[in-house]
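Q: Mind making up any chain with structure tokens?
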Amino acid sequence: MPIELKLPDVGEGIAEGEVVRWLVAEGAQVKEDDPLVEILTDKANVEIPSPLTGTVMKILAAPGQVVKVGELLALIEPVAGQVPAAHHVEASTGRPPSVSSVAKEPGQVSPPKKAISPGAGGEVLATPVVRKLAKDLGVALGAVPGSGPGGRILEEDVRRAAGPKAPAGIPTESSPEERIPFRGKRRMIARKMVAAKTRVPHALLVDEADVSGLLAAREKMREIGEREGVRITILPFIMKAVAGALQRHPALNASLDEDRDEIVLKKRIDVGMAVDAEDGLVVPVVRNADAKSVIELAREIERLSAGAREGTLAPENLSGGTFTISSVGSIGGLFSYPVINVPEAAILAAHKIVTRPVVRDGEIVPREMMYLSLSFDHRIVDGGAATRFLNEVVRRIEASAI
């Protein structure tokens, strides 16, 4: 009797995920723990493995489809006499996938269009989007070597086979526009941004910091960083200042539990940092930021940033933050209004450093100045508390209190 493979509870309050791609085709023979499907949650990509050895009978969730926890992904026919292992652990999450016996009347299940299907003249693995692209470009899929897992044909394989007549991302003469599917990480980001702006009353506070002393401290620290094999940037200094300010102003290191009508003050200071990855914004979390030195913070920031851009971070690296920093200064822009990373109480944006004339001891002198913008949840943080917190951040930055 076929076994239902359902989307497991991957933790961290995640209720659903989007099917990114299937790593097997219908009819494929799989072994226990073989990866079956890649799922995108609002935290990270996870691979769901097979809970048993058997045959993938039917794929029930197509790429791009959003599936809730407990909903069907596929039907797997186990080898004779095998029962799903109760101790089976899902590779990426540490939690067992949800499996159960299929109903006696499988006709009651209404599967969506298959994600992968064999083509004439041999097994051709390709999603419906890739098949349509091949048809539009006049490419025979059977003649295209696939570079994806298991020989799967990817979009770039089709475009490569089509030659210069179909450059990626450039509309053809017959098409005055290009349409990109709104799914994957971009759709997840959009949903989170909409939730943040519709549920949370954002308030904005802006100040500036003289970072001349901080830049001098960084130059001195770079020699140590070279010996330690870590690159020293501005961010670890800002994160150290923020972590120290959060210790003194815990109202900003909090969240609102709307279901229980409780303000939750966090005992740990776990600072998220917005990373501009190629396929969308990622926010890895530096744990216990208040207990780390600048060198330790720099090393952790470097590790997490690389993992975020390569897409190799585990879900636990992308969840559980208590406060977020968005350091956009390296890209440019004088000022921004950052969106709170719900359910956190606030987010701080640090902007580009500009040499400006300022008055010091009655004289006009050039100083390295940087704007800081703090967005905060006005339901749980008042303007006075936010101002005192930002004053503390500025004080620590200007004093190079590292």
Q: What stands out?
A: The domain at 3-108 is CATH 2.40.50.100 (OB fold (Dihydrolipoamide Acetyltransferase, E2P)). The chain has seven helices and 19 strands. The radius of gyration is 25 Å. Residues 86-122 have pLDDT under 50 and may be disordered.
